[in-house]
Amino acid sequence: LKQRCLGVLLILQRLLLLSSLLPMVSAGRLNWLLHEIHRGRTASVRFSYNPSTATEKVHFTLGPYLQQSCYRPCLMGALQSLQLAMASSIVTDKGHSSSPHGNH
Predict the structure, then answer these.
(1) pLDDT averaged over consecutive 10-residue blocks of the chain (104 residues)?
(2) Is the distance from CB of 7 to CB of 71 less than 8 angstroms?
(3) I need a labelling partner for 76 at 20 to 30 A (CA). Which of 8, 14, 84, 101 fits?
(4) pTM score
């Protein structure tokens, strides 16, 4: 458990460093997602690609809080890959505005 916590902290430190290179709104959104997941909030991520427009879409859905945080290496990897891609991409953050149920 101690090694997992250290691993999560190292990933968080790297992600925070990378986010300093991103536009403020996008970096803020990713930092907020990291914080929520680290606090124990459940989350899922979905990736899609539209070949006709050559655009990639990333969709995060947040759920309720767990009693304790859970080690989520794949989710942290998704956030890290998104931060790397955002540094060289045009980013549109739709945030809550595109949520039909207001649960994002």
Answers:
(1) 54 56 66 86 91 90 85 86 79 62 48
(2) yes
(3) 101
(4) 0.62
